[in-house]
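Good morning N.,

You mentioned wanting to compare the apo and holo forms, so I went ahead and generated the holo version with glutathione. This is what I fed in:
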Amino acid sequence: MDKLTLVIANKAYSSWSLRPWLALKLAGAVFEEVVIPLRLPETAALIARWSPAGKVPVLRHGAVTVWESIAIVEYLAELFPEAHLWPAGPVARAHARTICAEMHAGFVPLRSNMTMNLRRRLPGRGRSAEVEKDIARITAMWRDCRARFGHGGPFLFGAFSNADAMYAPVVTRFETYGVDLDAECRAYADAVLGLPAMQAWYADAAAEPWTIAEYEAV
Ligand SMILES: N[C@@H](CCC(=O)N[C@@H](CS)C(=O)NCC(=O)O)C(=O)O
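and this is what came out, ligand included:
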């Protein structure tokens, strides 16, 4: 197989980077990771070497370049069919793709008021009425997935899937901002947080030398 490189940003802050990184790890892929720290004078030029869109994550696979987290996890599902990054069966698969699209396109209040920050604990911060609506929608969605599709394991569709990769940064936000979860959602969050790959990402985030004042000022 051609060489795989995933270009990402700070592990402490970059929720979009975590998603395809986790999918790659859970697929058992061998890949090189390139971290470009955000908010430095050279950031834009470094990202431009990899993608004309000016954002990370970017996946390079030989001559192929894929950007946008959702497109990357789709590509990974094709590249690693044995990893079953989409659940089996058209109904579960359609549902998984739908909630991934909902995540990719939406939850703006949650994303902007509860920014990802793996090195902080800020219980109660950022909880506007709009954010509460996002939390209610996401936890209802998780409960629904677990009840309808989750029988084969602890994740949204039983075994780990791209849906878990897309919602992993929401799990970390609920940790950072101390969102109380019911037993079902707590068990799901714990399953995600307990993944060795998630623990490795947290450890790397803790060891990063960069601090971005804008993301610390929530
Ligand atoms: N819709 C994109 C969002 C990517 C994005 O916003 N990435 C941020 C980092 S988390 C970025 O590259 N920002 C560039 C910058 O701030 O210079 C995706 O799903 O991949």
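Residues 9, 14, 16-17, 38, 43-44, 55-57, 68-70, 104 surround glutathione (CB under 6 Å).

Happy to go through it together on a call whenever suits you.

Best,
F.
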